[in-house]
Amino acid sequence: MALTGQQASLTASASETARPMLEAPSVGDFVALMKPRVMSLVVFTALTGLVAAPGDIHPVMAVIALIAIAVGAGASGALNMWYDADIDRHMARTAARPIPRGRVTEDEALGFGIVLSVTSVLTLGVLVNWTAGALLALTIAFYLFVYTMWLKRRTPQNIVIGGAAGAFPPMIGWAAVTGDVSLAGIVMFLIIFMWTPPHFWALALYRCRDYERAGVPMLPVVSGAAETRRQILIYSFLLVPTAILPCFIGLGGIVYGVVSTALGAIFLWLAYDVSRVTEGRDGDRVAKRLFLFSIFYLFALFAVLLAEHAAPRLVSLAGLG
Amino acid sequence: MDVEENENEDVRKARQRMRSIAIGVALAAMVVIFYVATIIRLGGNVLNRPM
After folding, report:
1. Nearest chain B residue to A26, by CA
2. Which residues of B touch A115 (CB under 8 A)?
3. Which residues of B touch A23 (CB under 8 A)?
4. How many Å apart are CA A68 and CA A53, to the nearest integer?
5. If you measure CA to CA, which chain B residue comes closest to A71?
6. Could you give the C-alpha distances from A134 to A44, A127, A130, A152, A247, in angstroms and in order?
7. How far is B14 from chain A (nearest CA, A)?
8. Helices assigned H by DSSP within A126-218
9. Any chain B CB within 8 A of the CB of A58?
10. Could you give the CA distance from residue A133 to residue A126 in angstroms, rounded to a whole number?
11. Contact indicator for A217, A10 with CB cutoff of 8 Å
12. How far apart are alpha carbons A74 and A30 in whole angstroms?
């Protein structure tokens, strides 16, 4: 029973009130439009793809590529906030965003997002290469049109398919160096793709009422908490082997294999806990614990990959010095 | 009423100023990035030309 986009917007607009513009927006408001926390994960995973890729890129060009990818991710965030302003007002997690607070108008957010999208794609395409530029354009378009506009308000599978948008950055980083999309890039994509459902459904479990009030058909709202817990466990079992794949294609070394296996075991244990503890505050507590651990898990996996590939380069640089 | 209109006008002007500054900073940043990237791409070859 998925809500349609029209139902969602009707629900959302029921108690909507026009908010006066109290004062001019600050730089911080525009930074907030770019979802800086999401940007940090995007930059970090893109950096990993960039460092892990075979070949050389001038350090300044690498920095320019990362800035373009970060700005592209920020553009997606701004466009997402522009489109979702009506439902953001109804969720505690998003009510303090610049548009619901009346700090930035919807038109300003739209203009900001479009300008950032165009400049980031052009910069990456012209200065680095057009494979990376095209992938960045695809990422922004996928996040806006496929996830935000099409799936988010229509199906509980929204974050399963929409999660692809968040999975592209390491592939873009890789393409910035090599100019192509390789198996390693696809494996890094798959890790984030498989990670997204258990990560967001753990959040949705303890924020279920928020999503319900806003008319967003997240899995717990549509299929219930029990089905969500079952799906979290299934996707966790898919994620952990996927995260070990880099060891079999030469992307990850021994350290990565050990860390990935150990953290994967903890991930599975926490996901099992979520499926086991279903009642009251304890149910929310284990879901929140999985959500927070999932962030650490992804950062840790990419940090180890980054370290394994950066270390030999740093050693050789030091040797040359 | 007049006070309210003046406040709205002040907010509108402040927004316009903010937008102008943002566009200026963004353009300057783009120019710097493209300039630096061009110099890096040219590398030493920029000096290696027939006189």
Report:
1. B18
2. 26
3. 11, 14
4. 18
5. B26
6. 20, 13, 6, 24, 29
7. 6
8. 130-141, 158-162, 164-167, 169-178, 183-206, 208-214
9. yes
10. 8
11. no
12. 10
pLDDT string in tens for chain A (321-residue length): 344 444 444 344 444 444 555 567 888 889 999 999 999 999 999 999 999 999 889 999 999 999 999 999 999 999 999 999 999 988 888 999 999 998 888 998 999 999 999 999 999 999 999 999 999 999 999 999 999 999 999 999 998 988 899 999 999 999 999 999 999 999 999 999 999 999 999 999 988 888 888 888 999 999 999 999 999 999 999 999 999 999 999 999 999 999 999 999 999 999 999 999 877 788 889 999 999 999 999 999 999 999 999 988 888 877 754
Pick from A295, A280, A292, A243: which is nearest to A265 by CA? A243
Residue type, A21: M
Q: The tokens of A164 are what?
A: 């692809």
Neighbours of A91 (CB within 10 A): 20
Residue A55, Cβ density class (10 Å: 0-12 exposed, 13-18 middle, ≥19 buried): exposed
Q: How many helices (H) and strands (E) would you count in chain B?
A: 1, 0
Residue A299 in tokens: 């950062």
Length of chain B in residues, anyone? 51
Contact B17/A at CB under 8 A: yes
Q: Is B48 helix (H, G, I), strand (E, B) or coil?
A: coil
* Residue whose tokens read 């566009």: B23
Residue A147 CA to residue A168 CA, distance in Å, equals 14
CB proximity B34 to A under 8 Å: yes
* Structure-block tokens of residue A25: 């927006």
